[in-house]
Amino acid sequence: MGILTGKFAIVTGAASKNGLGKATAKLFAEHGATVAILDLNLEQAIEAASDLGPQHVGLACNVVKEEDCQAAVNALLEKWGRVDILVNNAGITQPLKIMDIKGANYDAVLDVNLRGTLLMSQAVIPAMREQQAGSIVNISSVSAQRGGGIFGGPHYSAAKAGVLGLTKAMARELAPANIRSNAICPGFIGTDITAGKMDDTMYAKVMEGIPMGRAGKADEVAGCALFLASELSSYVTGSEVDVNGGSLIH
Ligand code: NAD
């Protein structure tokens, strides 16, 4: 018996091979959960889900689109009858300076990171309310807490700070229905979101700011997501948990 045995979990943006979402989906499956991987591309989502085992599901879902979020959750409710866990992991970033942020940059970054978190949460909350149980885990960033300083621009910091506010407000509103809402603030984790996009100077500067002296691994964020998704954290709600090697100690 795993700690997630009998639980049904959705992880958004989890098709990326080296990403935090895939690592989280894999760890959840290893601990007994049945997992749905939602991502932009259907084939990639199905492939990622089948890596975890035959009972897991891959679905296409652009989290920016309300109809996609509703359709994915409806399909899963039809199949599973319940949803216990939602991990809002889908996200994009852009390394822009303040004066270079155009409307389209703002829309893209705010939409995927913040609107997507809202829309997916809205899609699962009615079922979680009915069950009187649920855990929502939102992937924010250390950039929200310290104003960037790694890769993403100010619009990314703002979007991820918005995720923290949303996480806490949902925690307050949904607590009476026994639905918990928490955020993870990863520091610098080696994934495709920055792969090949940082020069040596930029990378060295980021490393200097990490007391543990190394980038984090996707599995190390997944471990925290497992804790927050499971009953191990049954009295934890509205929290922001740092997974950053000491790059922000506060
Ligand atoms: P990644 O680029 O490897 O994965 C992101 C995934 O999100 C991709 O599979 C992509 O297809 C998917 N996605 C993008 N837009 C989407 C949309 N509209 N709908 C559905 N899926 C969409 O990145 P990652 O590093 O694994 O990032 C995962 C999350 O962690 C993101 O929210 C990111 O902002 C956050 N984060 C990452 C780091 C880091 O250092 N890697 C640090 C802090 C926070």
Account of the protein in words:
The chain has 250 residues and is α/β, with parallel strands linked by helices. It contains 8 helices and 7 strands, in the order βαβαβαβαβααβααβ. Strands 3-2-1-4-5-6-7 form a 7-stranded parallel sheet, with helices on both faces. α1 runs parallel beside α2, α1 packs across α8 and α4 runs parallel beside α6. It starts with 7 loop residues before the first strand and ends in a 7-residue tail after the last strand. Nicotinamide-adenine-dinucleotide binds next to α1 and α4.
The coarse silhouette is globular
- Portion of residues within helices: 40-55%
The ordered string of helix (H) and strand (E) elements is EHEHEHEHEHHEHHE
Chain-averaged pLDDT: 97
Oligomer: single chain
Estimate what percentage of residues fall within beta strands: 5-15%
Bound molecules: nicotinamide-adenine-dinucleotide
Distance between the termini: 37 Å
Contiguous helical run count: 8
Extended strand count: 7
Summing up helix and strand content along with how strands pair, one would put the structural category as alpha/beta
Order of strands across the main sheet: 3-2-1-4-5-6-7
